[in-house]
Design a protein that fits this description.
Layout: H1 22-41, E1 45-46, E2 52-54, H2 55-61, H3 67-71, E3 75-76, E4 84-86, H4 91-100, E5 110-119, E6 131-140, H5 145-162, E7 168-174, H6 178-194, H7 201-209, H8 220-226, H9 238-254, E8 259-260, E9 272-280, E10 291-297, H10 301-304, E11 313-319, H11 320-326, E12 341-345, H12 348-363, E13 368-370, H13 377-386, E14 391-395, H14 397-402, E15 404-409, E16 414-419, H15 420-429
Parallel strand pairs: 1-5, 7-8, 12-13, 12-14
Antiparallel strand pairs: 2-4, 3-4, 5-6, 6-11, 7-9, 9-10, 10-11, 14-15, 15-16
This protein binds one RNA strand through α3, β6, β10, β11 and α11.
Length: 431
Amino acid sequence: MAIPKNNKDLLQSPKGTRDISGDDFYRKQGFFEKAQEICEYYGFSGLETPAMEYENVFAKGVGAGTDIIDKEMYEIKTRGANKLVLKPEQTAATMRSYIEHGMQSQPQPIMWYGQGPRFRHDKPQRGRYRQFYQFDLDILGSGKPIMDTMVIHIAYKILGEVAGLDKTTIRINSIGDKDSRKEYSKALTAFYRKNISSISAKDRARLSTNPLRVLDSKEPETVEINKTAPQSIEFLNTVSKKHFRAVLENLDELEIPYVIDHTLVRGLDYYTHTVFEFFNETDNPDEKPLALGGGGRYDGLAKSMGHNKEVPAVGFGLGVDRIMEISTADLSPKVRKSPKVFFIQLGDEARMKSMNVIEELRGANIPIQHSLSKDGLSAQLGIAEKSDAPYALIFGQKEAMDGTAIIRTLGERKQKTVKIEDLAKYIKKLK
RNA sequence: GUGGCUAUGGUAUAACGGUUAUUACUCCGGUUUGUGGUACCGGCAAUUCGGGUUCGAUUCCCGAUAGUCACCCCA
């Protein structure tokens, strides 16, 4: 918030971005670690794609007429002729990677997870950043409904077990395969044309670019008319119906609660069959529930990106920032070890040799905290007191000469002198 | 992108248009240089930026910036 006087244009992070440090830093890392564990267990492996892509990856993949592509992409100024953009979402990038590396000749399906920043030029708000973090999971190369269920199941587990969110609602719908989708789209267009006077001007414009998105509209008059709009599941052909039913049956079997939401079609062009979103239900009515994540099947993506073959695929993305905001779960990562010993040094001689002693302890895997920048025993003991370390190691002039160190039990205020060579072993034995 | 609200040290806050800009926490240093949580003393540190009104602006007005809320959209 504080903006330095003479550098207001330079010394602040860009709008909608922020520095992540302290607890936030570790919680984000811890979340990833724990989510990763679940994914690895289910046989997924990691994928990290660049922060930028050629514009076509998203323009062709996600499709024009969506806000993401039309007005939220960051274009990068480059010296070359090709247009680069900061990636606004992961799915198209994942598919690009699959196609580029010929993954279709590997045993199918390819199962990938990953986490990283996404960029959208949106107006910032709570839980909405211009650089935000997503955890993604994708299964490419299989059209089986059980894959849809698995993806939903894992997302549900991550939200529940990792983030500790037990009030997650899953909204689900199906827009069917390409044919069903086309039929539905046609029917919707006809419906809206018939009621053209009842929908807002904005939605009339949408009608020509992407009629499915009119269903998403929040314009009051459109919301009203949408109540009588044809529902996508009415237009599912036999195959699509069977697929959707199988997904739901699998969810029932797993006892994952869901709500079928006929207005849920998701804005992006590439979705087919199953689409779903996760919401966190809040207790206080002042806060409206935030979308924590969403996803679906995108069998049409590969072809719309110019690939010669369809690649059936399904996946989700979770909004890490939003999850962090409401999660109260303990998310400390493995690297974050609570210190066992607080290292105190006294005098130049001892300070000089301190790092050698510390290296000794590091070699023995003993986590420490230190105050090498400080002088004075009282001061350092004071800091040790405030730390979480149960023991203090005092290494002073005398100890440095003798090749010993004092191990002090902070709570009981008792201490013992130990030889440096026995130090690690001695500390290990302490509870 | 549209509209509303907000903006004081690192954090949290006080100040009828006139104060050396309040207080607390944090942080740093000290209370006879080798044994601690308390206490005491001292120190660092702020009116977001740019205009305007006024003898005088933290205070009123306008603009910018940022945050926040609603819309939009979505993670």
